[in-house]
Design brief:
Methylamine Dehydrogenase, Chain H, 3 helices, DNA repair
């Protein structure tokens, strides 16, 4: 850090380098927030969460009984103890809009917090009006839904839905119809992800151990099936020695991270479709029939990208391109099922089967100053009203 300061003064480093290096260091120092917590609204285990992309403020969460909650994460400067309130909710099986089975996935509409989507083991994908907290469109599948993802595209409003029968259905939010289906997986589809750099490219992962890349304009067969050994990428190639449970592209779309029931993470070069052979070690977890959610640190707040991965009741943090385990978050009492990162600040939210959502932050001057002021006020108050007087 000292050398960076010297290089910056000498004009050898760009102005943005030091703040990013400092922020990167902070990701290894996360701990439970000292002064903030979420309102206790969940009566059941949490299965999925997502922070909205537009304002980085509203956190969606869903539970095993089909309930959905929206909580406000806004930080109130100068307030010592804060509770992030639940601003909207829909309890499972209580209204015509409610899901009747466990929530599989929740996604905000990428361009507007007025819309979000939910999928469930009750075989439905639902489009919600956030302000009214009611369903405006309902897509019914023939088998339970394990996962879905909304394209961040401008030219189309397509949603990919992965189901137990191994089919990926492409739903059009504008028309309210299913435009086409992708058939190649032999077992349930556990995870789907749209490429952030190519709006027609979709990655899918399944219990058949395969990851397929698709061009949704050409649905007869996938573009490629990823091979963990970097061999022939044919029908029988496998990406993991177990179910493929999680997929996520890097923000620039150049790399894809995958997670499997073999308790391994893999990093793939998208352009060459090759396994980069990064060794993250074994990541123990109990996921099998549920998507394994993980998250990346935002490029704006990290010089080197880090990967945050649920592992039983903990969250392990890895350097993306080296595989080095730099930290572990401990705070939940049972399995962490979902995680998201606030790209406006160094802040992480984790949801668990222990019915709680926790806030993780790097200890910062705002929190310390707030606590210091409160402590001084407390001392003055105690001296003034001492029992000895």
């Amino acid at each position: 850090m000292i050398q960076l300061l010297r290089d910056r003064r000498a004009g050898l480093e760009e102005e943005w380098t030091l703040p990013k290096v400092y922020a990167t260091h902070k990701w290894t120092q996360l701990s439970l927030s000292r002064n903030r917590e979420f309102e206790r609204s969940h009566d059941n285990g949490i299965t999925s969460m997502q922070l909205d992309h537009t304002s980085q403020r509203y956190l969606l969460s869903g539970t095993t009984d089909g309930s959905i909650f929206i909580q406000d994460t806004r930080y109130q400067v100068g307030v010592a103890r804060q509770t992030c309130p639940t601003v909207a909710f829909n309890r499972g099986s209580t209204t015509p809009s409610s899901h009747t089975h466990s929530i599989s996935e929740l996604k905000w509409y990428p361009h507007d917090t007025g819309i979000f989507t939910s999928s469930s083991m009750d075989k439905t994908l639902r489009i919600w009006d956030t302000n009214e907290m009611c369903v405006v469109e309902n897509f019914k599948m023939s088998t339970p839904i394990y996962t879905h993802d909304l394209a961040k595209a401008i030219k189309h409003t397509l949603t990919a839905v992965g189901t137990k029968d191994g089919i990926v259905t492409i739903c059009d939010m504008n028309s309210g119809s299913s435009s086409h289906i992708l058939k190649r997986h032999k077992k349930p589809v556990m995870t789907v992800q749209w490429s952030p750099s190519d709006e027609y490219t979709l990655a899918t992962g399944s219990q058949d151990n395969q990851i397929l890349f698709w061009d949704i304009r050409k649905t007869r067969c996938p573009l490629v099936s990823l091979d963990q050994h970097n061999g022939s990428q044919g029908k029988n190639s496998t990406a993991h020695n177990g179910y493929v449970l999680g997929l996520q592209f890097t923000t620039d779309g150049l790399f894809l991270i995958s997670s499997g029931s073999d308790q391994r993470l893999r990093l793939w070069d998208v352009s060459s479709t090759s396994n980069m052979l990064i060794n993250y070690g074994r990541i123990p977890h109990s996921f099998k029939n549920q998507t394994h959610h993980f998250s990346l640190t935002p490029p704006s707040l990290s010089f080197t990208p880090h990967l945050l991965v649920p592992s039983h009741s903990d969250v392990s943090i890895y350097e993306l391109f080296t595989g080095r385990n730099v930290s572990k978050l401990k705070g939940h009492y049972s399995s962490v099922t979902s995680i998201d990162v606030n790209s406006n600040d160094i802040e992480v939210y984790t949801g668990s089967t222990d019915n709680t959502v926790l806030i993780w932050t790097a200890v910062n001057s705002i929190e310390l100053n707030t606590e210091s002021k409160l402590s001084r006020q407390s001392v003055i108050y105690n001296d003034t009203w001492s029992d000895e007087d």
